[in-house]
Design a protein that fits this description.
The protein has about 250 residues and is an alpha+beta fold. The protein is about 45% helix and about 20% strand. The strands form two sheets. Strands 3-1-2-8 form a four-stranded antiparallel beta sheet.
Length: about 250
């Protein structure tokens, strides 16, 4: 299997984000609530809910919290939740794509605009970054789940399921598919009886921009501000996370 991909740097940033467990749980709870609201609370007939619950289990979300989120999806409060996206630029020309789930769009857009403005960036119009990002399906699987399976045959199965890139490190195997093949890969993993640690639609940059460590740290400040906002579900960017920058972050 391929050990490297052009998107490898993105995962390092995501790993750092995922350490903020409370934030991750909040994001997944919203996903579960919206999935239950849109297509009902039955896991067997609601694949979106099934995947959201699977992501919750992968993040060690407590069972009773998952059940409360599903129940909440049937209530009036869930009817007000909306998923919105915002696009803009941070310092040094770095593109930033923000996904949010909110019950008050005015509050959220004001907060997003404020973060851009106060940190030297600018909020753009929706679609303004479409030429810089590809919408991809991203499936993360713990390697222990794949133990005992023939690697060559497994890679062929993944390719058959639509995998464009297979990235593997010591703990995880990550599959990247086109948006159109997202459902195909879901079915393929189910056919292979392989449970994913997480299954997501992500915005993957077509190319990344390298900056000096000092400039990159300017950009990381605005990314952190977005990640701290309660309404923000995910933040994507095209900053290249060089080894030098990563080593500085670990100090």
């Amino acid at each position: 299997m391929a050990g490297h991909s052009k998107w490898a740097n993105i995962k390092h940033r995501k790993a750092a984000q995922d350490k903020k467990r409370a934030k991750v749980w909040t994001r997944i709870i919203k996903e579960i609530t919206i999935a239950a609201r849109d297509s009902g609370p039955d896991l067997d007939s609601n694949p979106a809910l099934r995947l959201a619950v699977q992501n919750g289990k992968g993040a060690n979300l407590p069972k009773d919290t998952i059940e409360r989120a599903i129940k909440k999806g049937s209530g009036a409060e869930a009817a007000n939740l909306q998923t919105v996206t915002y696009e803009g630029y941070g310092l040094h020309g770095i593109a930033i794509f923000v996904e949010a789930t909110t019950d008050n769009i005015n509050r959220t857009v004001a907060a997003v605009r404020s973060i851009f403005t106060k940190n030297g960036g600018s909020l753009g119009t929706n679609g303004s970054l479409s030429f810089l990002f590809d919408t991809k399906g991203v499936f993360t699987i713990e390697n222990i789940v794949l133990e005992g399976k023939d690697k060559d045959e497994l890679e062929l199965e993944f390719i058959d399921g639509g995998a464009e890139e297979v990235e593997q490190d010591e703990e995880l195997t990550t599959l990247y598919t086109s948006f159109d093949d997202y459902g195909t890969m879901q079915n393929k993993l189910a056919e292979l009886s392989i449970d994913s640690k997480s299954t997501e639609i992500q915005q993957i940059p077509k190319s990344t921009t390298a900056l000096s460590v000092e400039q990159a740290q300017d950009v990381l400040k605005i990314l952190d501000k977005f990640e701290e906002d309660d309404d923000v579900q995910a933040v994507y960017h095209n900053l290249e996370l060089t080894e030098e920058l990563l080593s500085k972050l670990e100090e």
